[in-house]
What we know:
Elements: H1 4-19, H2 25-50, H3 54-67, H4 72-84, H5 88-99, H6 106-118, H7 122-130, H8 139-151, H9 155-167, H10 173-186, H11 189-202, H12 207-219, H13 232-248, H14 252-265, H15 271-285
Helix pairs in contact: 1-2, 3-4, 4-5, 5-6, 6-7, 6-8, 7-8, 8-9, 8-10, 9-10, 10-11, 10-12, 11-12, 12-13, 13-14, 14-15
Amino acid sequence: MRHPHVLTLLIAGTIGLSACSKPDGEAEVNRALNDLNVIDESNLNDVMLQAADPNEAVAYFNRTLQEQPERVDLQRGLASSLTRAGRSTEAVPAWERVVASSAATDDDRVNLADALIRSNDWDRAETVLDGIPPTHETYRRYRLEAMVADSNEEWDKADSFYETAVGLTTTPAAVLNNWGYSKLSRGDYSGAERLFGDAITHDQTMFTAKNNLALARGAQRNYELPVIPMSQTERAQLLHTLALAAIKQNDVATGRSLLREAIDTHPQHFEAAVRSLRALEDNVQN
Length: 286
């Protein structure tokens, strides 16, 4: 963003030059000032989209749109901010307004499909994605295509879309985790385990993938913790996950042992594991 003293110098220079020029110098000054305002506003829009609290960004774009309702870039900013704020029901009509514009892009249509999925409107999301040309090959498009195929239980299509999405990004951890969960839901536990492991390789902080990996191993009656980076708290939580998987499969003694280990491992009081152990013991006694 421009520094205030830089703007001051630029404005002063423009005014100084205009004072020595033709009679329409005042119009040129106004035009130069308007150009500077557009540059500064564009910078502010970017800041609101990337750094601001999403609800503050929603308020900003709503306020600015009241003054300039025809601006598609502001409509796009509002729709993006609503999505970031988790306000999917409001984001859908906001993206629809953007898509209805002559300035709409295929990325806007992908964003509309994303908002529809977040609103659990899978059929409309599929229709929107089907209307995007196949030449628009982006990571986000194929990740959404994979999720829609999953929802339709079209497993071969889902696998193809997930594989394509992985190849279109340098940070594939999230889509690998989604793909692994898809495999998990189909009962392909070994395939899921491999994908969750790949996700963790790309992002060692992704606890969701670590927990899903424990679920995949537990579903195969493998109750050993995987060899992955984990904190002491994460270790306790993963032991708890394995314990619940064991109990679900009637391996009660193993589940009880894992719960006790989880409680002992956690650096603080592990209320969830304590409740699980208490419920297990009460059920056995009864």
